[in-house]
Amino acid sequence: MNIREYTKYKEQKAGKNIETPFQSFENTENSQDIHEEYERKLKKHRANVAMLAGLAAIICVAGAGCWHAYNINTSYTGYEVVNSIERADADTAKYIPYNGGMLKYSNDGAAFIGADLKEKWNQTYQMQEPLYAICDSAVALADKNGTTIYILNESGLRAEVGTLLPIKKLDISAQGVTAASLEDSGKSWIKFYSPETPQEELAATKILMEESGYPVDLCLSNDGIKFGVSHLNVENGEARATLAFHNLGSVGENEIDNFVGSTSYTGSVFPVFEYINSDTAVAFGNDKVEVYSGKQIPELAFELTLEEEVEKVFYNESYIGIVVKNTQDTGKYRMDIYDLKGKKIFSEGFDKEYTNAMISGDTILMYNESECCVYTIKGVCKLDKTFDKTILAMAITGNNRYMLITEENIETIKLVR
Q: In whole angstroms, what is the distance from residue 272 CA to residue 270 CA?
């Protein structure tokens, strides 16, 4: 009897309905000795199997680690086109990275193009100046100064919301809860809508501009519970910015307008205010960056003082990127990357006039109409490339894979050595 046959015998003895040719096993004269011998063999067999499984797991982890390290530290010389389709839209259409593909929008509609270059949905509308907000796969679209909001996800339209006042700003949570800044002669409203009940307001906050100043930007946390407003006031000819925080959950429900705290800054303006995840809000200013963190009531985590002129800012849920006009001797411009503890991950000087910058996962992409560069978050340059075509937009779609929007085509490419 081998180990497999002995195991079947034990299962039969335990009451399982398994046939075995060893029905007389219990009547063997030396059955006790045979039991003990096979128990020893079974334990040894199980120990060997466990050891082999452990070794296989270690080898897999080590292999994955080696592949990750190789992939991070590998540089590429160019790319090859994996797929390509001809563009069939107007030259006025704009493209934004979205959900592993591109969100295309224009004055008469929007569409989601996946990484496979197939159109997943198409939403028609008529707008003069489209506004958009994206969080994970949730999208909000509205016409600036219009009164209609379209709430969508990767499958298409979820809800259409009508407002009574003109829309000035938008933001959206991962669940599709949408915040809209609405203006009404001397006062502003922040109103919230759910795709589940689009005809009802979830909440509303009134802002008196005489007291708080003009609302410059609006941000909503990914979980839809917290929101912030960047205000700007001018007192005696000097700018005064206020970052105000509100909580729509139990923490803020008993507070006037759900207000839970604010900080003011003299001489500063914060035109970009973003929740980059559920608990971290970042205010990008003309002379500083303020990072707030907190599950319920945000508190200042750290501040970055900006002594050089800011060209652009970019971020994802884990990192903050800032491009400044460089006053050091390493190039005309400099890119600085920080983590959410305020630690500078790396800096890189360069001379090229990149008009776009983004972070996706651990990949940093900067590009203009004819050039692009790709860095890892560790500072390794993976690609520095000049194109032979005009690039209107780029998106990171996967590991070393990208989507290009050119004047004539939509392409997916992969990097090659």
A: 6
Q: What band does 186 get if pLDDT is binned at 50, 70 and 90?
A: confident
Alpha carbons 217 and 133: distance in angstroms, whole number:
12
Q: Which of 44-48, 254-258, 371-375 has the lowest mean pLDDT?
A: 44-48
Do residues 215 and 188 touch, judged by C-beta distance below 8 A?
yes
Q: In whole angstroms, give the CA distance from residue 141 to residue 164.
A: 16
Asked which of 205-209, 317-321, 367-371 is least confident by mean pLDDT, the reply is: 205-209
- Among 262, 264, 267, 263, CA closest to 286: 267
Q: Are the C-beta atoms of 16 and 8 separated by less than 8 Å?
A: no
Q: Is 81 within 8 Å of 411 (Cβ atoms)?
A: yes
User: Would you mind telling me the total number of residues written for the chain in this entry?
Assistant: 417
Asked if pLDDT for residue 308 goes beyond 50, the answer is: yes
Decide the pairing of beta strands 148-153 and 130-135: unpaired
**Dihedral pair phi/psi, residue 229, rounded to 5°:** -130, 130
- For 387, the token pair is 């194109």
Q: What superfamily would CATH give domain 127-306?
A: YVTN repeat-like/Quinoprotein amine dehydrogenase (2.130.10.10)
Burial class from Cβ neighbours inside 10 Å (0-12, 13-18, 19+) for residue 147 reads middle
Calpha distance 167→150 (Å, rounded) = 12
Q: In whole angstroms, how far apart are CA 19 and each of 3, 26, 38, 39?
A: 16, 15, 19, 20
Q: How far is residue 251's CA from residue 257's CA, in Å, rounded to a whole number?
A: 12
What's the rounded Cα separation, in Å, for the pair 402 and 415? Answer: 8
CA dihedral sign of residues 92, 361, 117, 275: negative
pTM of the model: 0.81
Separation between Cα atoms, residue 291 and residue 296, nearest integer Å: 15
At residue 128's C-alpha, the angle toward residues 122 and 129, to 5°, is: 85
Domain borders along the chain are 3-69, 127-306
- Other beta carbons within 10 angstroms of residue 327's beta carbon come to 9
Token pair 């990949």 in the structure block, residue: 363
Q: What is the pLDDT of residues 5-18, one digit of tens each?
A: 555 555 555 554 44
Q: What one-character DSSP code corresponds to residue 287? A: S
Q: Is the dihedral of CA 89, 91, 94, 98 positive or negative?
A: positive
Handedness of CA 160, 161, 166, 167 (dihedral sign): negative
State the Cα–Cα distance between residues 112 and 276, nearest whole angstrom: 22
β-bridge pairing 310-315 and 319-325: antiparallel
Sign of CA dihedral 84, 88, 91, 94: negative
